[in-house]
Write a structure and sequence with these properties.
Shape: extended
Number of helices: 26
Strand order of the largest sheet: 1-4-5-6-2-3
Distance between the termini: 92 Å
Number of strands: 28
Radius of gyration: 39 Å
Structural class: alpha+beta
Largest sheet: 6 strands, antiparallel
């Protein structure tokens, strides 16, 4: 055995003195444990490799882990000199250190060592002097060894990986960069620096707009802005000035770079110099149109264009014999395309793997040989290979005399294009469905406003207990319908979270009927919800949508039935890198379904990642759940075992309750707002039933109320007599609520406005009038009254 590489030595002064370090024998432990055999058994149990050598450097003790590491019987090594055990070279490397330890100095040593069977290992050794308690002299050295091979290998691999990435990036013929939102580049490769010229710092801060050709700059800037706003991958193509003053065609592909929370932090881009391809494309078109036979003037030029093509290309005799092929690699193509040369196309190795298309290929070659262009789409499908879709064409290549000299076969892989088209179709379908759903929900909210308001009034005025009970039951059912409408609105559009104190357990309890309808009888539902009723910060509507999404995912994972379990509990979180320290409610939704593999689970929260078939999933469900939890101040995590099931755990931060004094102060402030003369209120709403309910409810509260059926009449009423408050429907035909509000505020900046809407238009309202409150339909009369008082309070 030989030491390799040399090591690192650290000197200390701490030795072991049995007398000074002695500890009284515990009375409740067996004395035999502290005898020689007992201590040997204890030493064999600890997961540390240790040994003891005397002054002559002979092994007098060695525990079992060290003997197993050395792969020699312990009895065989006891009494041997260190050089006989670790080898002459290794001993020579350590002899000075061991002698220093025998002199009373504690030594640390790290080095590599060639193991007889396991090869090169890395180890750390601690040489501790053993002091005689009677004489104080060093009797020997205790050796503690730690195998750090795996850790060192990991560190080396990480450094090599980083260096390899840089070498790969720098050796790539394409320009690569990573930018921040401020346009400064965090990374550029060597090709990028070579193209731009100058120092790396100058390149990182370069404004690319100064390098775009004047004829292309407006178009490229506009396309870049649109591409970045789309939050999708986008491509730009144009002429850029190289450092040597030459204009070069570049094609760049950029895509958003998202942070850990899904926020946009910059862009990643790759650009290739397509000058030759552009010029070749134009030249090839001209040559094909003018004189096809010129392709034979230069075999090198022909081969360059042939090999640079993005499609599979095959040059054929008119009888179908393969003359030449390009080297385009595709998953469906035979690994050695040149094997097809000299054979008929339908007898080529690739076609032998797909015999179902032989007849189609023969038909295409026959058509092209007669002077026709043959095009079709084929599905390349066989076991063990991903299915691909190809756009195939066979066209004649004519000579100067008009005769057909060759046939050109081209196959372009359009699998990703078809997938993108399908995704676009699904997206358009979902958008249309969302618009339809939003419209229905808006109208339904208008109806519910009248129903809820009317039932509320009946419940308050009913003297018959039975009639009051009927009214209360109907009112509760109508408010459940309002919650369902809120869920429909949440589905119809992406909304900003309205985070507020929310109780998780009651929310889940109220969802039981909905879960029962969604999951069906085949799924057993169990609940273990916390009884502490600690409020958390969350958007109740979005939390319901998240729970519903998770329940549907769990149902799909249990096609033969199973159990879906809902649990919540209060937890204390400290030192978690994702969330702040404090109290949280942990909501756990777990199923007994198929589960996920480790690689699928690692990507489960990624947007657009899905294992479902095309058309059966958008890949946004879990990412929406994660985003909702993170925006609420918590997080979401996933645990899954294939064949056993999946568990989603969501953490929601505890809410800080409003102080009682603040509540009383706010209440007093609203009450003070309506003291004195009755406030004047102008109600503008295009729905006559909703408008009449609001007018009636306010008149009963003593307000002076006027009304208008649309925005134009509302502006006339406001101009005729200034109202103290304008209650304004946000969505109306003609002049919208936003337009009416803008005109009112333009004339009177202090005009009090209260928006009402069947949509959840919080963000839109904030853009129009940041300080104007929004009351969502439906609502009761007392809720309307409180909202009116609150809107009037700042202006009283």
């Amino acid at each position: 055995m030989a030491d390799r590489g040399g090591g690192t030595r650290v000197t200390g002064n701490q030795g072991v003195n049995p007398a000074a370090d002695a500890v009284p024998l515990p009375l409740d432990l067996p004395p035999a444990m502290f005898t020689g055999p007992g201590l040997l058994q204890l030493a064999d149990l600890i997961p540390v490799m240790t040994a003891y050598v005397d002054k002559d450097l002979r092994y007098r003790f060695m525990n079992k882990p060290l003997a197993e590491w050395l792969e020699r019987p312990r009895r065989e090594m006891i009494g041997l000199h260190m050089r006989e055990v670790i080898g002459k070279e290794a001993f020579a490397e350590r002899e000075g250190i061991i002698r220093a330890a025998l002199a009373g100095e504690r030594q640390y040593f790290a080095s590599t060592w060639t193991h007889p069977t396991r090869g090169l290992l890395a180890a750390q050794s601690d040489y501790v002097p053993w002091l005689n308690p009677a004489t104080g002299e060093v009797d020997g050295v205790c050796i503690v060894i730690t195998d750090v091979t795996e850790r060192r290998t990991t560190e080396i691999a990480l450094k090599e990986s980083e260096a390899r990435f840089r070498r790969i990036a720098d050796s790539a013929p394409a320009m690569m960069w990573v930018t921040r939102l401020d346009r400064v580049r965090d990374f550029v490769n060597q090709a990028y620096i070579d193209f731009v010229g100058g120092t790396e710092e100058e390149v990182r801060t370069l404004d690319w707009r100064t390098r775009i050709h004047p004829d292309d700059v407006d178009r490229i800037v506009a396309e870049s802005i649109a591409g970045e706003a789309s939050m999708q991958r986008f491509t730009l193509e144009g002429r850029y000035l190289r450092h040597d003053g030459e204009w070069r065609w570049l094609r760049s592909v950029s895509q958003p770079r998202l942070g850990p929370d899904g926020d946009l932090v910059g862009f990643i881009g790759v650009a290739t110099d397509i000058t030759l391809a552009k010029e070749s494309e134009l030249e090839l078109r001209r040559l094909v149109d003018e004189r096809t036979e010129q392709l034979a003037l230069s075999e090198a030029q022909f081969r360059a264009v042939f090999e640079a093509a993005l499609e599979v290309m095959v040059l054929l005799d008119p009888d179908g014999t393969v003359l030449a092929v390009n080297n385009r690699r595709e998953v469906w193509r035979h690994p050695n395309p040149e094997d097809a040369v000299g054979t008929k196309l339908w007898d080529a190795p690739t076609m032998r793997a797909y015999p179902q298309h032989v007849a189609t290929m023969k038909k295409g070659i026959q058509a092209a040989a007669k002077g026709k262009i043959f095009t079709t789409e084929v599905k390349m499908e066989r076991d063990g290979v991903p299915t691909s879709y190809l756009d195939v064409s066979v066209q004649p290549v004519r000579g100067p005399d008009g005769g057909i000299n060759y046939l050109l076969f081209e196959a372009r892989d359009v699998t990703e294009l078809k997938a993108a088209q399908e995704q676009l179709r699904q997206s358009q379908k979902m958008e249309a469905l969302g618009q339809l759903t939003g419209g229905i929900a808006h109208d339904f909210n208008n109806l519910l406003t009248v129903v809820v308001g009317g039932l509320d009034i009946i419940s308050k005025r009913a003297e018959d207990a039975k009639l009051k009970r009927y009214a209360d039951n109907a009112l509760a059912a109508a408010e459940r319908g309002a919650r369902l409408t809120a869920q429909l609105l949440a589905f119809s559009r992406v909304q900003r979270l309205e985070v507020r104190p929310t109780h998780v357990a009651p929310l889940i309890e109220n969802m039981r009927p909905l879960l029962r309808n969604v999951l069906g009888p085949g799924i057993n539902k169990t609940f273990d919800l916390d009884a502490e009723m600690m409020p958390v910060m969350a958007d109740p509507t979005q939390l319901e949508v998240a729970v519903l999404n998770l329940a549907i995912n769990a149902r799909d994972a249990m096609p033969d039935g199973g159990t879906l379990h809902f649990a919540s509990r209060k937890v204390r979180v400290d030192g978690d890198p994702e969330v702040d320290d404090g109290d949280y409610i942990e909501l756990i939704i777990s199923d007994t379904g198929m589960g996920m593999t480790e690689d699928v689970a690692a990507r489960a929260f990624e947007p657009f990642f899905t294992t479902k078939e095309v058309g059966k999933g958008t890949g946004l469900g879990l990412s929406m759940v994660y985003g909702m939890a993170r925006q609420s101040g918590g997080t979401a995590r996933l645990e899954s075992v294939p064949g056993e099931g999946t568990s989603i755990k969501m953490l929601f931060r505890a809410a800080e309750s409003m102080d009682v004094a603040d509540q009383l102060e706010a209440s007093d402030e609203m009450d003070a707002a309506v003291e004195g003369r009755p406030a004047s209120v102008l109600v503008i709403d295009d729905d006559p039933d909703v408008r009449q309910f609001i007018v009636t409810a306010l008149e009963e509260q003593g307000y002076r109320v006027r009304q208008a059926a649309d925005g134009a009449h509302g502006l006339k009423e406001a101009a005729r007599e200034k109202p103290d408050l304008v209650i304004l429907d946000f969505i109306m035909p003609g002049l919208s609520g936003a337009e009416v509000a803008n005109r009112l505020l333009a004339k009177r900046e202090d005009q009090a406005i209260l928006f009402v809407s069947g949509y959840s238009e919080t963000e839109a309202v904030r853009r129009v009038a940041p300080h104007v409150p929004l009351l969502s339909k439906p609502f009761r009369a007392d809720v309307l009254d409180r909202a009116v008082r609150s809107a009037l309070a700042p202006h009283s």
